Amino acid sequence: GGTEEGMFIRPESIDIDENGDVYIADSWAGKIIVFDADGRFSREWPVESQARGVAVADGRVYVLDAGRVLVFTTQGEKLGAFFLRTTLKVAILLNPKEDHKNRKGSERSP
Predict the structure, then answer these.
(1) Fewer CB near the last or first residue (10 Å), C or N of the chain?
(2) pLDDT recorded at residue 50
């Protein structure tokens, strides 16, 4: 592994979108790495801290990062973020389609 394009150091989480693209959250390299359905490197983008988890749903990539969830397009454009309590982290990653912003304990960032 390594920090070069398409390489990872410590993969923490993985998800696959409806097209078969594989998204890997690398906490030590602080990035999301994407491979196509045939296993070829496609793209990657940095996250602001450590990428602890990743979930892909409805054209959005949700990245768990130090007590908040960052939301990106599948091409890596950041759309926003929201903060949450520890008890909600698993719910977000397991149910990304649910409207978590209205759950008790979560807050929208400005």
Answers:
(1) C
(2) 84
